[in-house]
Amino acid sequence: MDTIYDRIETTARDLYIRALKDIPRDVRDGLQRAHAAEKAGGHQTAERVMFTILNNIEVADKKSMMVCQDTGLPVFKVSIGSEAKIDVAELKNRLRKGCERATAEYPLRSNTVHPLTRKHTGTNTGQGVPIVKLYFVPGSDRIEISMAPKGSGSENTSFLKMLNPSEGRKGVKQFILQCVFESGARPCPPIIVGVGLGGTSDVAMQLAKEASTFRKIGSANPDPDVAQLERELLEAINQTGIGPQGLGGATTAMAVHIEWAHTHISQNPVAVNMQCWRGERAEAVISLNETEVHSHGTL
Amino acid sequence: MAHYKLRPPLTEADIRQLKLEDTVTIDGTIFGIRDATQIRIFDEGIAPPADLTGSVCIHTAPGVRKLPDGTYEKICIGTTTSTRMDRFVPGLLQQYGVRAIVGKGGFLQGSVDAMAKFGGAYLAIVGGAAALETLQIEEIEKVWWEDLMPECLWKFRVKDFGPLIVAIDSHGHSLYRDIQQRAAERIKSLSQ
């Protein structure tokens, strides 16, 4: 019989492959809205781009193909219930093995290289990869795994600035707009803009990744002031006219997500991380008392 | 906004007729190149082992499976961000006669100028739409510099490859530059 660790390994493998093939429902809906907006706005090039994106997703569904060639760097977000009582070191080991199996068995293009020598590992794993973010949930016996093969076009448009507190809300908005402007066509718009506000510099970057990659389009931050800023920024970003693929149009971003942490009185870190239109993400829940893995895709 | 069906090798006249936001589809041969391919050509000074005169090059590192007979089966072929490889554009056009580059994300002003001078165009593909691209590539015909895998020099046979959008033409126009200039003005007024 498969152990819980075997199930974790197989789930990691399956999630890696599924995230590359099955676009999440909320992202599909966002892309449909973008297509409708470009059509209504009479922007022919933008409408053609959005049509091609939707057509590509349909073809990938029908033929069981990957949506985009970038198999990314594997990032896992794992929420472990306190009652799950598992060996976290072994869990991390099995997530790595799952990535290696996906890469060898599908096969997936491997992207992982040494940052100086640029030498390939060939496995989509390596020092510090996969990236695993652990969270702990009291009272639960479940292990929730979200997986994102984060693509490089969007990851290369990442920004961090330690603002002066005196720059205030206006400074935060200006910086984020400037990041979107500097990114232009490169992160494959229409994008999801992830913002990390507060904490220390490293925490701000982590929050930005959580916001761009693991939050669903249509979700709002529970803090009403932050949610208000999300709405204002989305409206402003879509007035830039950068548009789908940076070729002009009404939809530069499908969403702006902000995650925040308290910070020091004399600092205000703002981090920005983009997610491309693919919005790759796949999720599964493993329960200690069931053998079944609950995996929710759209296909 | 006209539509053109092109079959490489392309002439200067083929390129000079293209205007911003025209669409193009390609039949025949295109070459796949990426960062490492162009580092070898330009930084290491090793001439490409294929004649690129009149060619269309695409920025890609395909996902493939090597078959027992040494050929490659396509798994997923898509396009990467061109902007990283901006510095190689003048050389590709002037030294090797490349006529069109297919990519996403666009090039900077130096490349726009080079395209005007030497008669080149940048054809934007929809980035991330790799399922369509993979189906439009009929066959991987040849691979050089396999030691750079997956950033080799690839020769693909394509059919109805596109839609590609003319985003930099051979007359000094860049759709990216126009859009970014407008965006800069809007951001300025939004930040008041």
Rg of chain A computed from alpha carbons, rounded to a whole number of angstroms: 19 Å
Number of domains of chain B: 1
Query: Strand pairing plus helix content of chain A: what structural class?
Result: alpha+beta
Order of helices and strands of chain B: EHEHEEEHEHEHEEH
Strand composition percent of chain B: 25-35%
The total of beta strands of chain B comes to: 9
Biggest sheet strand line-up of chain A:
2-1-3-8-9
Termini Cα gap of chain B: 36 Å
Number of DSSP E strands of chain A: 9
**Structural class of chain B, please?**
alpha/beta
Shape of chain B: globular
Total helical segments of chain B: 6
Q: N- to C-terminal separation of chain A?
A: 28 Å
What's the number of helices of chain A?
Answer: 8
Describe the protein in words.
The complex is a heterodimer of chains A (299) and B (192). Helix content of chain A is 40%, strand content 22%. Chain A is built from eight helices and nine strands. Chain A has helices at 4-21, 25-41, 44-63, 88-105, 152-155, 168-183, 201-214, 224-237, and strands at residues 73-81, 131-137, 142-150, 158-163, 191-198, 253-261, 268-275, 282-287, 293-295. Chain A has a five-stranded mixed β-sheet with strand order 2-1-3-8-9. Chain A has a four-stranded mixed β-sheet with strand order 4-7-5-6. Chain A is globular, with a radius of gyration of 19 Å. The two termini of chain A are 28 Å apart. In chain A, 51% of the residues are buried. Chain B is α/β, with parallel strands linked by helices and 192 residues long. Chain B has one domain (3-190): Alpha-Beta Barrel (fumarase). In chain B, the strands form two sheets. In chain B, strands 2-3-6-7-9 form a five-stranded mixed barrel. In chain B, strands 4-5 form a two-stranded antiparallel sheet. Chains A and B meet through helix 3 and helix 6 of A and strand 4, helix 5, strand 9 and helix 6 of B.
